[in-house]
Structures are given as C-alpha cells and as structure tokens.
Amino acid sequence: MVQREVKPTRMELIDIRKKIFLSERGYKLLKMKRDGLVLEFFKIFSKARDLRAEIIALYKKADERLTIARCIDGETVVSSAAFAVGHNPTVVMGKKNVMGVVVPTTLEKSTVKRRVDRRGYGIIGASVRVDEAADAYETIVERIILAAELETTLKRLIDEIETTKRKVNALEFKIIPELKEIEAFIRLRLEELERENVFRLKRIKHKSV
Amino acid sequence: MAGIVVLGDNAFVLGFRLAGIQDAFVEEHIEKRLAMLLNEKAASIIVIHDTDYAMLSPAMKRRVNETMEPVVVSIGKLDEENIRERIKRAIGIDLYKSESRNV
C-alpha cells in the first residue's frame, strides 16, 4: 500500500535511510527511557503499596475510634471538640523532574501531631475517646502527606511508562519495518532500472556495431 | 493556599476536623466542589473517600489522576485496585498478585 505512493528515486532512498537511522536512534533512546522509568517505578512501588495498606488500616482504626467517641460521648461533644481545634496543618507541594516526568514533591510541611493540651479543646471537657480519635486522624494526615507525593509519582510514572511503551512498540513493529520495506522496494527498483539501463546500452552498442 | 482540603460526608469530615484540618467540608456534590478547587488551585492536597472517587465522571477521574496542583488523594481500597489495574496494563504483570504469593 505504502510502496505505491513512493517514488523510486535515489533522493527518496536517501531520505528513507535518514528516516530509518533517526527512527532506530529514537527507538533505542525510548527503550532506554522506558527501562529507566521502570527502574524508578520499582524504587517507589513497594513504599507506595505499603503506605496505601497502612493508610487503609489506619483509617479503619481511626473510623472505629471516632464512631466509639460519637456513640459514647455524643455527636455534639465530638463536633464541638472538632470545631475547637485551632491548628491547621499546612503543606507546600513543589515539582521535581524524574526522567522527564514532572512529579510532585513536598517542599514544606508543618507538624500535624500535637500534644493533648495543645489541640485547642479542653482536656477535662473532652474524653479520652475523642483524644484517641484525634490522635488516629493526625497519624492519617501525616501519612496522607507522604502518599500525596509517592502515589502521584507512581501514577505519573505508570502513565509515562505506558506512553513510552506504546511509542517503542509503534516504532519497533510498525514504523521501522514499514520504512525498511519502502527502502528495500526503492533499492530493488533502482537496481532493476540500473540493469535495464545496462541492457539497453548493450543493445544500442550491439546495434551500432 | 498551602493547606489540606477534605471533602466528604459528615462522618468522614469530622475526623479530619479533629486532626486540625479546618478546610474540611461536608459536601454532597463532590464533583462540583472538586472542579472548583482544581480550577482555583486553592489547596496543596485534596482528600476524598474512594466511594466518592468512584462516583466521579470519567473526565473528572482523569483530571484528578493527572493534576499535580493540587494533588488529590483518595482513601480506601478502590483506588488501590485502580492503581493495580494501571500497573498491570503498563508493566504487563500483576505485581500485587506476585507479592501476595511470595508472602
């Protein structure tokens, strides 16, 4: 199909050879990039997976504690304690480059864990169950800040690996074989023209003699 | 703003308020509020529950996965499954399965 659109000229052959050279170089580079990305991915994969499992377990525990506090102390006590908490944890996210992939990184973060007497609600007024729930949620928030960096990095790396894999496969199985096919077609056509020319010259020479 | 925003139902939000997060909003229409926060870039991290994440439209899910300002974190098992599927598609092997076999 492609061959019919190609003009079998020497210029076209030179162009196609340039394209093959460029495609093969791009293919090698993309393959290296893909391998590099996979290495980066495996560096953080186990950390991110463990962190996710930890967050799920912590959330389950914290939710249980909060439910107990709400059941025993009542919704009003827990809600008023929650609204009395004054300290708002801050986190500043930046960007960094991993193998050409822009990923988030934590630049600054304030402490989330606080002592019981620094939370803002009265120690006597709030029960130990509220303290436990607050403590559990503080731990989750700390892990969430970590997860925000790790999981987003992981997701972006996965996307980039997939894109690079598609590019590598397209070059390996579609673009380069097609270009080589065209190159072979032009080369053979030119060789045929060359032979025809030689034959024609010989005939002319023979006739003239 | 360099803070953490939590969106969800009352039970979800209350715990995070106890942890000191003041920008914790009880929200029924998560998608609308999420879109607003993503447009305004008004937070560093947005925390949602994965059941709410599952309810988002495909376009919003894609946006949530791609955005870095702010970073959206969903809590729960569903997001893990989502990551697992994506890893399987990208790497070609189910890493979670092989790990559980090793254990």
Q: What are the SSEs and their pairings?
A:
The complex is a heterodimer of chains A (209) and B (103).
Chain A: H1 2-5, H2 10-73, H3 75-84, E1 91-98, E2 101-109, H4 128-208
Antiparallel strand pairs in A: 1-2
Helix pairs in contact in A: 2-3, 2-4
Chain B: E1 4-8, H1 10-18, E2 24-26, H2 30-40, E3 45-49, H3 50-55, H4 58-66, E4 71-75, H5 77-91, H6 95-102
Parallel strand pairs in B: 1-2, 1-3, 3-4
Question: What structural category arises from helix and sheet content of chain A?
Answer: mainly alpha
The biggest beta sheet of chain B, please? 4 strands, parallel
Query: What percentage of amino acids of chain B are in beta strands?
Result: 15-25%
For this structure, what is the CATH homologous superfamily of chain B? ATPase, V1 complex, subunit F
| Low-pLDDT sequence parts of chain B | none
Write down the CATH class of chain B: Alpha Beta
Which fold name corresponds to the CATH topology of chain B?
Answer: Rossmann fold
CATH architecture of chain B: 3-Layer(aba) Sandwich
The largest chain-to-chain contact, stated as pair and per-chain residue counts, equals: A-B, 59 and 38 residues
**Poorly predicted segments of chain A:** none
Rg of chain B to the nearest angstrom? 15 Å
